[in-house]
Every structure is written in C-alpha cells, then in structure tokens.
Amino acid sequence: MSFAYPGGIDCDIHPAVPSLQALLPYLDEHWREQVAVRGMDELASIAYPANSPLTARPDWKPAKGPAGADLVRLRREALDPFATSLAICNCLYGVQLLFSEDMAAAFARAVNDWMAKEWLDRDPRLRASIVVPPQSVERAVDEIERCAKDSRFVQVLLLVMGDQPLGKRHYWPIYAAAERHGLTIGIHAGSAYHNPPTPVGWPSYYTEDYVGQAQAFQSQLTSLICEGVFNRYPNLKVALLESGFTWLPAHLWRLTKYWRGLRMEIPWVDRAPTDIVRSNVRLSLQPVDGPPTSTKEGRDSLLRIIDHLQSDELLLFSTDYPHWQFDGNAVLPEGLPPDLIRKIMIDNPLATYSRLALTAAKEPVR
Amino acid sequence: MSPEDGTILTADAAERQSRSRLRVIDCDVHHALRSPKDLHPYLSKRWRDHLDTYGHRFPVPFTDGSPYPKTAPALSRTDSWPPNGGPPGSDLAFLQKQLLDRHNVEYGLLHLLAPHGMDQRNQDFGAAVCSAINQWQYEHWTQKDRRLKAAIVVPGEDAQAAVAEIERWAGNTDFVQVSMVTHTIEPLGRRRYWPIYEAAARLGLPVGLHTSGYNGHAITGGGWASYYVEEQHNVAISQQALAISLVCEGVFERFPALKVVIVEAGLAWVPSVAWRLDRHFDRMRDELPHLTKKPSEYLRQHMWYTTQPADEPERPEDLRRIFDWMGWDRVLYATDYPHWDMDNPGQSIKLRLSEDEQRMIYADNARAVYGFA
Lengths: 366, 373
What we know:
The structure holds two protein chains of two kinds.
Chain A: E1 9-13, H1 20-23, H2 29-37, H3 71-79, E2 86-89, H4 101-120, E3 126-131, H5 137-148, E4 153-161, H6 172-180, E5 184-191, H7 206-211, H8 213-227, H9 229-232, E6 238-241, H10 248-262, H11 273-280, E7 281-284, H12 296-308, E8 315-316, H13 338-352
Parallel strand pairs in A: 1-2, 2-3, 3-4, 4-5, 5-6, 6-7, 7-8
Chain B: H1 13-21, E1 24-29, H2 45-54, H3 92-101, E2 105-110, H4 123-142, E3 148-153, H5 159-169, E4 175-180, H6 194-202, E5 207-210, H7 228-248, H8 251-254, E6 260-263, H9 270-283, H10 295-302, E7 303-306, H11 318-326, E8 331-332, H12 355-370
Helix pairs in contact in B: 5-6
C-alpha cells in the first residue's frame, strides 16, 4: 500500500550504534585503549531497555542486536514506506549519561563521525543531529563548531533531563553556537539520570518514566522561556522530540497567566510565552499522546486538542523509528485535514530546520 | 491570579448579584499561625525546647523561608493583612469577614502551609508538629466556626505515625480529609505510603494533596530551576507525576474506596495525562498486570482537582472541553485565600457556566466528595 502523503521530512529517527566496538575506529588511541582495558560496557540508556515494546516495533526488531542499527532495514522500514524525502537521525547512544566530561566528549565526537561516515555518506536522504557532551559546555561548543562545517548536520541534540534546566545561562554558549550556524536545538525525551526523573523521586515502573517525559518537557520549556533564551537568541528554533504535544495548551495557559503575574521577576521576557512558543518552538508528531482515533469521538477530540494549540505550524512529522508508536504505515492519526498534513509533513520541518534547504535532496541511492 | 485582585470592595452590582446566588464550598483556604509559639501549648517540653533551639529543619538551604523568594510578603494579597497585627490568615474574625461572609462560603476547607510536619528532617519532631497543628486547628478554628473544616495533617514519611494521627481524629467531623505534602521523598504511589491510604479509605476520609513541601530532590527531573515563576509551575507539574504514580502503582486497585483531591495544581493537564497513560499502558500492559482498568478510569473515579489557579485559555470556551474530557464532577472550587493569586468566586472562571454547572463546580461536587449534608 503506497503512502498517501509522499515527500515528507521525518524529524525523528533513531539509527542505533550497533555496539561499542563499532565506535572504536572513531575513537583515538587513548580511548580505544580505555574501552579495552577497563572492559567498558555499552552506553545503552535505560530510557530504552532493549526488549521493551516501545524500544523496537516487533516487525522492526532484528534477531540480534539493537533495532535501527542496519541501514538497509532503515531504508526499507523507515524511509521507503512513507516515501520520505529527508530524515533527521537522532542517535540516542548514552553519551550524555556519563559523568566524565572527557569521556563524554570523546564519545560524542566518535558518534558524530560514525554518523557521517556510516549513515549520511551512504544515503542522501539522511540528515543528523550533532551529539554533544552537555557535561562540558565548552567541549559541546567545540563539537558544534567541528561538525557544523558539514551541512548535513542540521540540529544539536540534548536530552530533556540533564544536570541543570536547559534555560540556565550556563548552557547559553551552546545556543549561541547553534544560532550562529543555523542549527536547531533538538530536545529529545530521555534523561541523563543524574537527577531523579520526577521531582518526587524515582518511580517504580518504566511506563511511569515514559509517560512522565511530558512533565520534563513542561519544565524545560518553562526554563528556556523564563531564563530568556529566546530573547537573547531570537532566531533560535527549538524542536521538542518524542515529547507528545497534548500537554502543551494547558501548560501555556498556565505559563502565560503566571508570566503576567510574575513578570517583575523575569522582566526580560517581553512577550507572552504563548507567542514565544509559536515563533520558536516546535514538537514532533510521534508519539501522538491524544485520545485513540478509532472512534469519531476520539477523532473529534484529537482535532480539538490540536485546535487548542491555535497554530498549524507547531507539529513536525516523525516516525520515531524504530520505536513502536504505530503499526503498519499509520503514522498519521486518522482524521487530520490534508492542509494540516502537508504542513506537518513538509512545510513545518522546512521552516524549523533552516539547514535542510542548504542541501538539496537528490534521488535516493539504492 | 486575576486582574480583579484587590478590587474586591468595588465589585459591581452584577457581580454582587451573581455572588448572592452562589453558594461556595471553598476547597482551599489558608489559615496561619500568628506566631511560631502558637504551637507551644500543644508540644511536649522536649519538642518546645527543640523548636526554640533548632527550629524547623527541612531539606532546604535556608533556615527561614523558601529558596525561591515569593512575589509578595507572606505570599498574600496586600489587603489580607488583618488588624490583629499577625500575618494573613491568622485572624479568624478577619477571615470570616473577608472570605466566608463576603463570598457566601458554606464550608471552607483549611490547608495550613507553614509549618509542615511531614517534611521535617527530624521525623519524631515532624510527628509532634503534626499533632500540635491538628490540636491547634481544632481549638482555634474549627471549633470556633462550623463552616471551617480541617485536614488531619500527618507525618506521611513515617506511615505508622501518620496512621496513629489519622486514627486520633477520625470520627471528629471537624476533620474532613487527610493531608500530606506533595513533594515527597518517593512518588506517593509507592508502598511506604499505603498504610495511610488504607486508614483513609477505611475511615472514609479523602486524601487532600495541596501543592507543598520539600523532599531534597531537584524541583525538575532536569535539575533546579532559577525562579519563583518556574517553581510555581514545577510544583504543579510534580502533581502530575504524583497522579501517574498513584495510578500505576495500583493504589486505587488496592483501596477502591480511596478518594484523592489534588489542590492548587490546576487541572487542564488532566486529559493529557489520562491520554498518555492510556496510550502507553496499552503498549506496556505486561508491566502493570495489577491494573484491571485503563489508567484514565482510575483518574475518573478516584481523583478530584481544585480550580485555583483557574486555567485561563485565550479562548475561554476551550476550558469547557477540558471539563468535558476530565468530567465536570471532578472539578472543585477553591479560592486559595489569602494568597496573591487568589481566585474570587464568580469572577475567576472565564467560561460561561450554566446554573447547573455553577452549582456543581462551586459546591455540589465538593459536597459529594466530602459527604457534606
């Protein structure tokens, strides 16, 4: 069955590092030796346990090793079925989770070089996010500068839960570098697990961790806005990835209300949070965290909550491959109007990722 | 917060008329100690001495107050400082006049915000503080005005002591719920808190969870935020985490009679949390075999939410959809008197409500939850 909306730009796919061994060629001698001598384990984040149903859709799960590690399968499973024109690779290898900034910087560099050589060089539809070590802002900026020369890198990737809220001035050099190079800041679900994943401690269940990502996104959006990131970097685009989006209207109602009441504390925030989000913040489509669209009532409710966003420019097409968010090629929830679909699939991604226009898409290499 | 704050004395005729029609059960009223020494009569000599020597010690940096300085002295409306010279909420007569009489409040549900017993680092002292607060509430507030109803404050991190405190007051109709802080050491669904739910369910007391407290954890999953305006958000966001925990741990499966009221965390987030829970529960049902229903059904049957601070969509009617999705019977009115962001009955909810809808939100829903005749 061919996909009804070809040419989309998939803003969140996850090529996987097959194993630490695969990164060895991209590490310098010191770190290669460290890996061997210390018997280092995989940097696989507990945000995605290998066999959790969410981590890999059953028909996308290989017999061995992590899902998403094979380019041939990724083409066949993530790109071709949706006639995707471009797809942005967000590698979730757990570089940000380390405590040593030296080690994190070395692995970030290795992941980016691996990404360019093993993925971007081999399929012209692929673009990628720069993995940076937020453990050291200085080295994160170095890595941005190094990778920005390659226009196939279109974004800087951060996790939604790290050591400090992302609005903090501490991180601003990262935003300055991103804005300077026309890179979007992608904030992806997941945690460094340097703090409990909720403000009330460690939950018992994986389901809670995953559902709770929405709370972390609310906190980060609040931080970015209140600290004045968008006042200082007005051209910065932030994409919230694997974030869900139905939490956004309620959050903005409250944030805007409290901004009105408490502006004296943050006088630099000279626009309503709602307006800031509409100009600077975007969210990926999958997982669609709305009501099930198997009934008319559900479809109506989904359209209504999308209407509560009061903008058709906020959502970005994503499959979240290989995570199991939908079956078959039902990546778009039922009942969306065609105009909105076009915006989600093509117009909004192009407006969000200015670097996509720098590299014209060529015919896919098979 | 609403622009009407502070203009209460000049309310126009239409508003006066609507007020006279409204009977209000106010699910969030803040009384206050006039002096820290108000608790002395209810503490043993050991704990009096301890209080005077070491003071209250919470897992926070400062001896006094919050690491996030608020936006107004005592967090309160400028016109709420009573003639007795004490802080806002410390003078019963003034509270009666400014809140209960003026706004036709049938019942006012008290939540004491300071001090707490539950998040004291010294747990024995915390239990003593809770007992003292409850006795003080009884003698100075609920016995003096039958409209005022207290919450049994409990040292919830020590479940055994908490249950003892609940049992001490259960059956006393001045106390209509059990209250815990919301920034707890573990998510509130975890087993260490279950004896509290068992006692509350057995004794027919809802658990009222007013946004509050310190647990030593960063205020977001990604570290400490900078500003009070962020704290305002994050304390509400943590109530979302708390609701998720209660559902996923199966608290309502184990205690089917338990009722939980979320206070001062807003409510427009409820449908989104319900959808997310259902969606991911569908995918990971094998992790939660102890749940026999969809997560949203537990929320729908066991949890209620107070209105203040009223959610204010740009298009007021958007709020109607939220109420439709979460259930109109889940919505309980609250003023948050005397705080700076207090909501005034009849003015704060911008949505145009039918008379039936008004009656539900302003009084009847709370009447049903708390069993008021």
